[in-house]
Amino acid sequence: MTPEYRKDAEQRIESYLSGNDINGIKYMQVEQTFSDFGGEIHVWNVRTNDGNWWVVEGEGVPMNLYTQNEFYFSSDEAYSFHLGITKRLNAKYHQNFRHIIDEVPLDIEHIKSISRRLNNAALELNNVTGPEDIQAIGLTCRESLIELAGVLVQDNPDLLKDNHLKAADFKGIAKAVINLYAPGKSNSKLRKRSRDVVDAAWDHSSEIVHSPNKNIPDAKICLLLTCTAVSLVQNLFLKYLGFDNEPKCPECKSMDFELLGEEDSEELIFSCNKCGHKKVIAKQT
Predict the structure, then answer these.
(1) Listing from the earlier edge strand, what are the strands of the sheet with 278-283?
(2) What is residue 33's three-state secondary structure?
(3) Are 225 and 145 in contact, with CB atoms under 8 Å apart?
(4) What is the model's pLDDT at position 63?
(5) What is the DSSP letter of 212?
(6) pLDDT attached to residue 87
């Protein structure tokens, strides 16, 4: 274990414990290191104001903690238990992560190359064998967002000049498009939420690319955020085109309706299929 790795691991452990409401670290030291499967896995002996813990972390395994106070009395037992959990989780990931994009509606036929790129990255979740594979998924997500920015600029030729942006500024371009596609006071909250989504997608993908300590769930989250950002922009565009103005039944607000007309009549009738409400909405010409 290099001094750099130890420092990074200690910071990650402190953050992990804090996230589990465990504070006041009094002692933290590696108790044992195992290398049964080619990479080093460390069992840390951590004593805090809230009890004593084994924290297991290492190459290609998730971090987890086990109490010393009740069940796991030795570092070897903690390691064995952690290894069993890791194997079960890996098996579950390979069953459930076959196509994570299915979890987000990704309607981007307009940008087929992005769709293909993200679909391939989703499939690669089944083939992760090391940190570089996870970093590659983060890079794919970032490249997809950059390509999306290029398409948005093509669709809005004056966008860069009007907003004093550079072609590689994904976040700036995305936010300018959000302002364009969701204008007005009534959309102010939507604009803020949309900006938060594109920020999260870009920042998380960049973090994945530059960190060797991320795991499969991190890559999955990266894909989910990227797909969400792309789908969000697509649906903001549909909203901008006027899909918000689709007719609704004035009685029950249903959008399940028919427009009826007869050959011998000039009237066009709105007929709600849910509540049966009917009204004349136009004269046929």
Answers:
(1) 257-261, 267-272, 278-283
(2) strand
(3) no
(4) 75
(5) T
(6) 53
Proportion of the chain above pLDDT 70, given as a percent: 74
pLDDT digits (tens, 9 = 90+) for 101-123: 444 444 445 567 787 888 888 88
- β-sheet bridge partners, residue 278: 271
How far apart, in whole angstroms, are the C-alpha atoms of residue 150 and residue 131? 29
Structural contact between residues 229 and 145, judged by C-beta atoms closer than 8 angstroms: yes
- In angstroms, the Cα distances linking 19 to 13, 16, 57, 64, 88 are 10, 5, 16, 12, 24
Question: If you write DSSP's letter for every residue of 116-163 in order, what string do you get?
Answer: HHHHHHHHHGGG--SHHHHHHHHHHHHHHHHHHHHHHHHHSTTHHHHH
How far apart are the C-alpha atoms of 152 and 230, rounded to whole Å? 11
- Mean pLDDT value across the chain: 78
CB 205 within 8 A of CB 225: yes
Tokens of residue 45, six digits: 């002996």
What single-letter DSSP state applies at residue 221? Answer: H
According to DSSP, residue 22 is labeled -
Give the pLDDT confidence score for residue 97 in this predicted structure. Answer: 45
